[in-house]
Amino acid sequence: MVVLILTQARAFSGLEVVAVLAAVLYLLLAIRENIWCWLFAGISTAIYVYLFVVARLYMESALNVFYFAMAVYGWRVWYFGRTAEHELPVSVWAPRIHAFAIAAILAASAASGYLLSVSSNAAFPYIDSLTTWSAIWATFLVARKVLENWWYWLLIDAASVFIYWSRDLQLTSLLFVVYVIMIPFGLIRWTRSWREAQA
């Protein structure tokens, strides 16, 4: 496997490398609740719009258009939600909100997965749709600084490892392995931040 990765590393596009590095910086800064995470999110997602079209992952490409818009929205929410003394606080949402969101995600995934399967050459139309709709919700939660976003991302990123590897986006697949490893750190830090705000 290491030999395969090293062999394929020579073929990685410069764009994919930049996108991956910006994405790692985004997550590191998001874990630290640093508003500059949104700048790197914008850079990374703009590049991935193109890369996913080339890989025929159309829902993922559309998702990155949304991510770019959310990078602008997230920066705005975090900026105007802070005070002179404190950043925008981490919040927790009620289980019924998440239950409703999950039901909506499943319904939307079934519909878009079916449409993609019958009207396009999309790879993994149902899985691609599920990760896309889930990520839309999870990204909104990050922008609103909702603690539960990390649980969604754990599942989304684990599935994404398989999708990207199978579409010859090995570097991006490895990025999502790193994401899966980093997510517990984000969950722990944001949980601590939420508890401190409650206190």
Describe the 3D structure:
The model has no long low-confidence stretch (mean pLDDT 89). The protein has helices at 2-9, 14-31, 37-54, 58-80, 95-119, 125-143, 149-166, 170-198. 79% of the residues lie in helices and 0% in strands. It is mainly alpha-helical and 199 residues long. The chain contains eight helices and no strands.
Beta-strand content estimate? under 5%
Radius of gyration: 17 Å
Average pLDDT works out at 89
Summed up, the helix count is 8
Q: What characterizes the major β-sheet?
A: none
Determine the N-to-C terminus distance: 48 Å
Low-confidence segments, ≥5 residues, pLDDT <50? Answer: none
Shape assignment: globular
Find the count of extended strands (DSSP E, 2+ residues): 0
Order of helices and strands: HHHHHHHH
Which structural category fits the helices and strands? mainly alpha
How much helix is in the residues?
A: over 70%
Helix/strand layout:
Elements: H1 2-9, H2 14-31, H3 37-54, H4 58-80, H5 95-119, H6 125-143, H7 149-166, H8 170-198
Brief digest:
With 199 residues, the protein is mostly helical. The protein is built from 8 helices and no strands. α2 (14-31) runs antiparallel to α3 (37-54), α2 packs parallel to α8 (170-198) and α3 (37-54) runs antiparallel to α4 (58-80).
